[in-house]
Amino acid sequence: MAGIYIHIPFCKQACHYCNFHFSTSLKQKEPLLQALLTEIEQQKGYLEGEELESIYLGGGTPSLLSAKELDLLFQQIQRFHKVVDGAEITLEANPDDLSREKLQALRKTPINRLSIGIQSFLEEDLRFMNRAHSAMEAEACIDLALEEGFTALTVDLIYGTPTLSHAQWEQNLQKVFEKPIQHLSCYCLTVEPQTALDHFVKTGKAQPVDEEQAAHQFERLIEASKAAGFEQYEISNFARDGYYAVHNSNYWKGKKYLGIGPSAHSFNGKSRQWNIANNSKYIQALSAGELSFELEQLTVDQRYNEYVMTGLRTIWGCEISKIYELSPKHALHFKHKVQTFMQAKNMEEIDGNYRLTEAGRLLADHIAMELFV
Amino acid sequence: MKNIRNFCVIAHIDHGKSTLSDRLLEYTNTISEREMQAQALDDMEIERERGITIKSHAIQMYYKHTDGETYTFNLIDTPGHVDFSYEVSRSIAACEGALLLVDASQGIQAQTISNLYLAIEHDLEIIPILNKVDMESAMIDEVSEQIMDLAMCDLEDIIHASGKTGLGVTDILSAVVERIPAPKGDVKAPLQALIFDSVFNPFRGVIAYFRIMNGTVRKGDLVRFVNTGKEYNADEIGILQLNQVPKKELSAGNVGYIITGIKNSKEIKVGDTITHSKNPCEEAIKGFEDVKPMVFAGIFPIDNDDFEDLRDSLEKLQLNDASLVFEPETSAALGFGFRCGFLGMLHLEIIQERLDREFGQNVITTVPNVSYFAYTKKGKELEIRTPSELPEATLLDRVEEPYIVAQIITKPEYIGSIMTLAMEKRGMMKKQDYLTQDRVELTFDLPLAEIVFDFYDRLKSISRGYASFDYQPTEYRQSDLVKLDIKLNGDPVDALSALVHREKAEAFGRKICKRLKELLPRQQFMIAIQAAIGAKIIARETISALRKDVTAKCYGGDITRKRKLLEKQKKGKKKMRQIGNVEVPQKAFLEVLKLD
User: How far apart are CA B347 and CA B339, in angstroms?
Assistant: First the structure.
């Protein structure tokens, strides 16, 4: 089974750390929506008829769309794809958009899961990040969503900001743990190139992320979430009672996905392609019935590298048998290279399944790079 | 002979020499449109990219003058960089005239002046040309004044030209006929020909380019190279057009090539004299020198298994670049490699680049140094080409290092910062000469060791590009030098050792440690970087252990980018050298000295 991702490239304001593709001008919302509908039709064959077990609306800020606009997208998807019963249909939403009326309208759409960009419950922290919502809205929207009947909620939090002490980080986590929320994503603040934050760091207006603080908060996150009954099933993702995110997990399991919208990526098992990251050009091309994208055919080396990089991040780990299936030579390379990390207790092996230990998770990129060919 | 004109072009890099040469070739129909690659004379890829001529070449063209006569022009191209001044002097010796080409927007540069003086010394007729006069930034009056001053000519002698539009090309061709004297020489005298360049051809061996001063050479003659004393058969002689054109005979005044089946370029020395084995000339042409390398650096393969391949590549490079010398060297840190001698820093960079491009040899180049003379207490003299050769301090009587005299031409407003730089480099100002109101020539006495590394780059940056630089070696002088060792986690890294002046050792050590801290990637353990003189640690930096290295987000749209990022890191890692338990990037060995 496969999944569809739809990118909604609009935001009310730009968060200082964000390097995703978006525009803060809503002028092109109408034509873009049309282009999305056209692309869904045009790309109907990409998944080769595989049924959908997930639809994910990300951004940008998809909660800027009205329930009516969202319904148009779902109807178009259903015209060309079979969506299985109980499929996970997620909408990324910002707290400032989640009024009671909005939530009630969303309940009438096929959306059955909300991913709320809380990021922090601290005013100062939110201002540092230039988020559009307040600390009060952050807390209120979760209760509202629960009241309106959204049972599957996931919340995003960010740590490693200079405005977040260790104690405050624990408080942020406790706020989530206290609520009946089954899923949590926690991201370490990352200074991405060509973001406002990057500019501030370069000009000395902001401190670069303090590695020791980030490492400590990551370690506390691992411990505290475990104590609260959450399982760290991926570096930045935590779930209670097996409520893993279906859509996101499929990225790491190498399943097929179709990405709709500017900058969205698609993957069919052998090649990956990504649409042009420019709203006007995207709309223009589609209005002429064309799609602007770049494509890469993955070589065996690249497929191996991707499997190692994504697999290591998850509790599902890397199966030596799967690597062997891809290429026996790569399996030998892998087995040879993991020795150092097994000895250093950064990795462990159970029945041919290789995973990172808790200590290893702090160095996931470094270890993946070392295992690369 | 009266219809031959031999001349060269004296110009600074970027002043348009190659473009102007192209125009001359086009105008005389020496080269057709189809054959015309931009800058036809620079046929090495690196040359074209860097816009400089590394190896000199020669080309013959025919020009029909307004007097109805057809003239044979031999244009001898010259390299335009300080490292190759000997080759320039030999090219000049093969000519009767020189085109002095000056960029109207930049004015005369130091390099041009020293070559101009060389040409005047050899009694060459100078034809001054003001190039790029069509550019907006051209300073025609000011630069003309400089030219008149230096070339000792009148304003009307200066030809205005533009290599781009072709302006002035006919004036230049006429001036070559009318102003440059025809070569003199006796076609019946014993053969006396000057070798001014050589090239290596994989099929034909080494080809020498020469100018016949006296006598006549025929195909099949038995010839002798006076300075090497070796004899060969002239298998083929001929003239140089775009391709080689074989001839039965060539005589005094002409320029040509000779193929004798020589396989090793070391046997042909630029400046040598060719004569006949029977009836030889009485004396060799003056000015011959055995070119000695000025700068030495270790070149090591990244992977020790590639040592033999590297030797093979260096040998092949040496076939067409006799000025490259090398001998095997062993480094505790880097294993087996070669200690190579170069004419200068540019020469080093060119060799490194050619190894990479032409032979696929990815190498580690160590910190370059000059050659010193060490005298032991027992009175033994040792030539020191690498810091590890320096004897123990207790055995050492004294060390001598080479000095140079350097000329820098700049604008008056940069004198202060250039003086500061020269003083920091242990230099002494000897002279300050105003060439014009706006141009001043500074002469410094400097240790060569201080300019081999970042001197030129820093000179350019403090003068915003308005300084040109030239130097000549002078003598060896006693100096208080110490060996500075660098240790990584306690292990000395011989490839990072340097000989430095005692007074500067501490500051130097601190800077190197700091620079290494920037260059070395963090690892899963702490790395201590120390600088030491003997047993005494004079500086230390610490690289903390890698604490956290993990991407926050890795979803559908992140995977490709993240994978590429890690693949790039991995590629960089493959270019690292393990020293003890520390991984050192290839470039660190050379970059470590780029201190500012």
Answer: 14
B44: pLDDT strictly greater than 60: no
Least confident among A87-101, B21-35, B256-270, B554-568? B21-35
Q: Which CATH architecture has domain A2-252?
A: Alpha-Beta Barrel (3.20)
Token pair, residue B561, equals 């980018």
Which of A252, A257, A365 has its CB closest to that of B550? Answer: A365
* CA-closest candidate to residue B333, choices B491, B116, B192: B491
Cβ-nearest to B566 among A218, A267, A372? A372
Cβ contacts of A5 on chain B, cutoff 8 Å: 556
Q: What is the mean pLDDT of chain B?
A: 87
Q: Are the C-beta atoms of B326 and B338 separated by less than 8 Å? A: yes
Name the fold adopted by A300-371.
Arc Repressor Mutant, subunit A (1.10.10)
Residue B51's pLDDT is: 45
B247: left (phi over 0), alpha (psi -120 to 50) or beta: beta
Chain A: residue whose CA lies nearest to B523: A366
Partner B contacted by A211 (CB < 8 A): yes
ipTM score for this prediction = 0.95
Query: A298 and chain B: CB distance < 8 Å anywhere?
Result: no
Min Cα distance B581 → chain A (Å) is 13
Chain B contacts of A217, Cβ < 8 Å? Answer: none
Judge: A236–B562 Cβ closer than 8 Å, yes or no: no
Output the CA angle B141-B142-B146, nearest 5 degrees: 115
Q: How far is B366 from chain A (nearest CA, A)?
A: 27
Q: Which chain A residue's Cα is nearest to B552?
A: A187
Task: Give A101→chain B minimum CA distance, Å.
Answer: 31
Could you report the per-residue pLDDT of A160-175, keeping only the tens digit for each?
999 999 999 999 999 9
Q: Helix, strand, or coil here: A138? A: helix
In whole angstroms, how far apart are CA B365 and each of B297, B323, B588?
Answer: 7, 18, 9
> Per-residue pLDDT for B53 more than 50?
no
Return the residue matching tokens 């192209």: B22
A202-246 pLDDT, tens digit per residue, is: 999 999 999 999 999 999 999 999 999 999 999 999 999 889 999
Nearest Cβ partner of A310 from B546, B550, B554? B554
Sort out which chain B residues have CB atoms less than 8 A from A364's CB and list them.
549-551
Domain residue ranges in chain A: 2-252, 300-371
Cβ of A363 within 8 Å of Cβ of B563? The answer is no
Q: Which pairs with CB-CB distance under 8 Å and at least 24 residues apart come from A220-225? A: A220/A166, A220/A169, A220/A170, A220/A173, A221/A159, A221/A169, A221/A173, A221/A186, A222/A358, A222/A361, A224/A170, A224/A173, A224/A174, A224/A177, A225/A173, A225/A177, A225/A184, A225/A186
pLDDT of residue A344 exceeding 70, the answer is: yes
Per-residue pLDDT of B148-172, as tens digits, reads: 988 889 999 999 998 788 899 999 9
Residue A335: exposed, middle, or buried by beta-carbon count in 10 A (0-12, 13-18, 19+)? middle
Of the candidates A251, A313, A362, the beta carbon closest to that of B548 is on A362
Residue of B nearest to A212 (CA): B547
Whether the CB of A369 is below 8 Å from some CB of chain B: the reply is yes
Q: Cα(B91)–Cα(B261) distance, rounded to whole angstroms?
A: 23
Cβ separation of A267 and B524 shorter than 8 Å? no
Grouping H, G, I as helix, E, B as strand and the rest as coil, residue A262 is: coil
**Residues of chain A contacting B576 with CB distance shorter than 8 Å:** none
Mean pLDDT, rounded, for B5-23: 84
Nearest-angstrom CA–CA distance, B352 and B360: 11
Residue A100 to chain B, least CA–CA distance (Å): 30
Neighbouring C-beta atoms of residue A361, cutoff 10 Å: 21
B535 close contact with A: CB closer than 8 A: no
- Are the C-beta atoms of B298 and B366 separated by less than 8 Å? yes
Give the bridge partners for A187, in sequence order: A158
